[in-house]
Model the fold of this input.
Amino acid sequence: MQFRKTWVMALALTSVVALSACGNNNGGNNAATNNGGKNAAATNAPTETSSGTDLSGSILASGSTALQPLVEQVAEKFMKTNKGVDIQVQGGGSGTGLTQVAEKQVDIGNSDVFAQEKLKDADAEKAKALVDHQVAVVAIAAVTHKDAGVDTLTKQQLVDIFTGKVTNWKEVGGADQKIQIINRPSSSGTRATFENFALGTKTEDLQGSIQEDSSGTVKKMIGETPGAIGYLALSYLDDSVKTLKYDGVEPSVDNVITGKYPVWAYEHMYTNGEPTEVVKAFLDYMVSDEVQNENGDVVELGYIPAVKMQVSRDVAGKVTTK
Amino acid sequence: MSFCVLLLIVIIISMVYFVASKGISTFTSGDVKVSEFLFGTKWSPEADTPSYGAFPFIAGSFLVTLIAALIASPLSICAALFMTEIVPGWGKKLLQPVIELLSGIPSVVYGFVGLSVIVPFLRNTFPGQGIGVAAGALVLSVMILPTITSVAADALASLPQNLKESSFALGATRWQTIARVILPTTFPAIMTGVVLGMARAFGEALAVQMVIGNAPFVPRSLFESASTLTSVITLSMGNTTMGSPQNNALWSMALVLMLMTFVFVLLVRMLERRNKI
Amino acid sequence: MKPRTADKIATALIVFFALLIVAILVGLLGYILIRGLNHISWDFLTSAPQKIRAGGGVGPQLFNSIYLLVLTLIITVPLGLGAGIFMAEYARPGKLTNFIRLIVEVLSSFPSIVVGLFGLLLIVNTFNLGFSLVSGALALTFFNLPLMVRITEQAFRTVPKQQKEAGFALGLSKWKIVTTVLLPVALPTIITGTILSAGRVFGEAAALMFTAGMSSPRLDFTNWNPASATSPLNPFRPAETLAVHIWKVNSEGLAPDAIQIAAGASAVLVITVLIFNLAARYFGRLIYRKLTASKRMS
Done:
């Protein structure tokens, strides 16, 4: 009996030791291979030819969660045709993406806003090193709960609502219902776009307003809360909420492309300096016709193709017709 | 083996060092004064003249924590009494697994249920949008029930049997014994559980963020949208770049969370010492 | 009020509140399971999530959660056992030991979000490990380790003194006593505690959002070479766990069945925690019986 006890013990102990040894081995090996992979990316790239199929190396992208699904999907297709390339796409938010690309921790930083808007003051130098690649456009529409009874709002009416001057829907021609604002946090890129191009002014947070960072939650809340107003990217719109016209203009893809509907922003993919060959090949593929045409991934996932835009806009918000 | 212990010490020192050095940079960079950060009520980091008052978040954290403790403590103490005094046998058999399961449910699941059950319920019964301090406190109170209950039950169970017996021998009813003998004697120990529960509530992030509404204001009513330290950190950390004043301010809030952890642990220690005497 | 009446009312209240807690749990579990169970199928558990179409699963997330848990336990169990045994058997009681105990206490009560942020700063950025399984496992180690230490220490302290003294009387070395006399008796408690803490790791989200990341690259489940990028075993890839996935689907989900997926994933998570709880009880009892059976017989 004494024997069995020792046996069970020995088994338990050896398994612990074996496991920890395993863990160490794994860690060691992979650290080495990982470094190898990164070096490979750096050293292989210059010797690479751009013929496509024999491209090799690894790409790390991080940042905007709004852009992430598109980059992920395109990356998967790119890796299928270029077997030697390994692309990792991570989220973390626009701020994280810009920080990491500026610190050269990642190859591509995805962002919903121009780098200059996030990297300001002391960090302005960092923004200068970054090269912008605009791959898609996202348009944002004001939406309300179905019973608000309003079909279209002017710029001034929107400003009045979001600054708290107007608090009841009947003041802007709707039902007799208190207005409930579902806003985004002040750090949100979606909010910056909405304030810049729909309201034309920054707004202060209002006491009692609700702030959610995620489009899914915003949509759910607007759908459930009587008198609610908020704003969503076009890809999130459906029957559960009422989409408003802006100054009488329908927020449609066509109106965005022609520049009639002004509330939109670019989705950016930043590189630190000019991209290496592998990264450049991938970024070129992002704006290729295969990805950007009406059957491509950009449209499929609800973005607007950047190459289709008939107008362009710079950091300062100045719009020019192409 | 002393290596393992050393590792623990290294972990905690580096943790305190990194979070503190990052959190302090808000103040050392000259952007914000400590008093302005702690007591300023205006949080508008993106405005043309930004201000970084974190008082609404600090107040929000304390508010939901206190309300959650006020709701959870009586419930937990009753549960502990049920397990140890009323029906010691099957009461423990019934509640012990319940408590363990409640503490095992992940916080995102609590948030999910809070958003789909508690919020609509509050919206239909009370004025306001359902989202707000009350919803956050309710979700938290369920989450800290297990902590308080298990500590309180342990305290009650460790009470010397003769204390109770002498009370019964004097002709006291069970309730009189509980109210006059058991609870006063075990009070510091039970408070330990309450403080531990509050520590958990204070640091909980996702479940609260999903239901509290996140407006950066000190709420005027329990049914109004508000924020906590944890909710503003989860909301804005990814959107801001490292080293920007707003990002630093978020790290300062993480530092406040860390300091509060020390306070809670100290409180627990003090209570334990009182309990021994 | 007469004492008798007061007693009756108080007892009724206590019973009511205790049963209320049971009702809350039953309601919670019932709600989660009823909403989620009909969405769970073999397909849901094994297929990859869909971005905009309905019918996505949680296969990679489930795998990630389990793999991350295994990685974390590989790191924490030996370290936790070591530190715990040291605290219980080797450390002399004094200021230093008290200080270490305080550290364990503080470390275990740090909010998970603070742990996650620390992981982001140190592991993800400074060590440049990126959003990866390793980063996640290390962050989880930070708050699982103190738990393990405490579990081990308490388990060792509950071993009757006589057993240790008998060992000394036989002339066994300290190490021998720890491994052959004390550890077997403490093991059931340690295993139960480990499994329960594993449940907590399994459901953690706040710390992982900042360390293991919120994305899951396409995994090739036929490629088991841990160095390969598409291999599920590669610890340097970002890994979204089940709990983080619930958070993400709930907030950012574009798929039309996002709510059902969140409900299904919640149910999977809760069922797993249930299994952990039952397993902890079962193993604890089983090993206890195995290790103590000899005593009764001889």
